[in-house]
């Protein structure tokens, strides 16, 4: 976009840094950002040394480094195309810059900023454009600055790639654990897949950021890992369990925490697993936590867990009606289940179809960190 500006034909009289005092010229020339000073009509009154050096080094062709040209007029042809969805990125950038510069010149905005790419044939480059108002009553009305942020953008890209690799490693670990559970108990594996999918959707409705949703999905994918220590004849027994048998079942949340706490996850996965049977009123287990003592992710998993447990087929009973699950969540809203989580869940659960349920239970895709970072 910067290159596009400097390659247009000149349209106004030549001016120079003489519009400023010697001290002001020295200060502006010492800055590394490419700076243009703009009058109230959008005309370029003066440019600094960094602007001129960039101009000379990039084959730009405006006379007098663009001084005397109208900044808005130079961008107008590109900006005119910005409303077209098929327009190139340069057009959308130009449209945004024209609108931002005008807002500063007219006083409706105190500042405008935009990051944009300005790639050269041999290198990738990014700049941060900043428009700020100049002193009132002066011919110069705005300062336009183009700061090279390429090093920052490349560092961000490296950090993002590293985060994706780390997340991928953790996802592989979780998938391996889930596979071990599946080999022993296919029902629990299908239930965990379903709860992970539901919990992730609740997180989406609640506006959780992508990384937190990724961690939530990981935790939900193995929330019942502790059941690996429960005898299969108890897990799959039809009919009511005895009190000692139920006590064994209740140990799975704490057992899951003990299995996972040695893994150095950057997210509270072990806490999610231990707390997913806690309830707001303290009636849950294993710690009897209340309200905000329970992490949000565990509160989300709890709602998804209850919903899926009610509507899903189990070895000892058929699945119950969707409305029964919705009624249970409504009854417990704000007392045993987090109200905001229930509201988000009801918003999504009402749209769940049997086909969606089957696909996510039987054939949920592998955890993909690239979809979250």
From TrEMBL:
PROSITE patterns: HD_GYP. Keywords: Transferase. GO terms for molecular function: phosphoric diester hydrolase activity; transferase activity. It comes from the Bacteria. Residues 166-361 form the HD-GYP domain. Coiled coil: none annotated. The keyword Transferase applies. Pfam families: HD_5. The keyword Transferase applies. SUPFAM superfamilies: HD-domain/PDEase-like (SSF109604). InterPro entries: HD/PDEase_dom, HD_GYP_dom, HDIG_dom. This is Putative nucleotidyltransferase with HDIG domain. It comes from Azonexus fungiphilus.
């Amino acid at each position: 976009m910067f290159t596009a500006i400097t390659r247009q034909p000149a349209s106004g009289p030549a001016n120079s840094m003489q519009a400023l005092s010697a001290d002001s010229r020295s200060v502006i020339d010492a800055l590394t950002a490419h700076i243009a000073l703009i009058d109230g009509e959008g005309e370029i009154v003066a440019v600094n040394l960094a602007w001129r050096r960039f101009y000379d080094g990039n084959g730009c062709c405006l006379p007098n480094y663009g001084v005397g040209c109208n900044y808005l007029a130079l961008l107008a042809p590109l900006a005119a195309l910005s409303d077209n969805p098929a327009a190139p990125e340069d057009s959308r950038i130009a449209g945004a810059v024209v609108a931002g510069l005008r807002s500063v010149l007219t006083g409706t905005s105190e500042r405008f900023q935009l990051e944009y790419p300005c790639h050269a044939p041999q290198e990738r480059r990014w700049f941060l454009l900043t428009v700020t108002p100049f002193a009132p009553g002066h011919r110069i009305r705005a300062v336009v600055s183009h700061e090279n942020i390429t090093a920052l953008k490349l560092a961000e890209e490296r950090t993002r790639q590293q985060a994706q690799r780390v997340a991928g490693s953790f996802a592989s670990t979780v998938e391996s654990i889930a596979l071990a559970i599946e080999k022993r108990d296919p029902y629990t594996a299908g239930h965990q897949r379903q709860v992970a999918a539901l919990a992730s959707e609740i997180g989406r409705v609640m506006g959780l950021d992508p990384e937190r949703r990724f961690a939530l999905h990981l935790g939900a994918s193995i929330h019942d890992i502790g059941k690996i220590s429960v005898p299969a004849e108890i897990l799959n027994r039809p009919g009511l369990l005895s009190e000692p048998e139920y006590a064994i079942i209740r140990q799975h949340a704490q057992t899951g925490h003990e299995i996972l706490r040695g893994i150095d996850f950057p997210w509270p996965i072990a806490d999610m697993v231990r707390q997913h049977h806690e309830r707001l009123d303290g009636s849950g287990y294993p710690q009897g936590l209340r309200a905000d003592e329970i992490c949000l992710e565990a509160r989300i998993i709890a709602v998804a867990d209850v919903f899926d447990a009610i509507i899903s087929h189990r070895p000892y009973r058929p699945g119950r009606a969707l409305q029964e699950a919705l009624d249970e969540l409504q009854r417990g809203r704000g007392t045993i289940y987090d109200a905001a989580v229930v509201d988000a869940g009801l918003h999504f659960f009402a749209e769940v179809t049997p086909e969606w349920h089957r696909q996510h239970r039987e054939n949920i895709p592998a955890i993909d960190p690239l979809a979250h970072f």
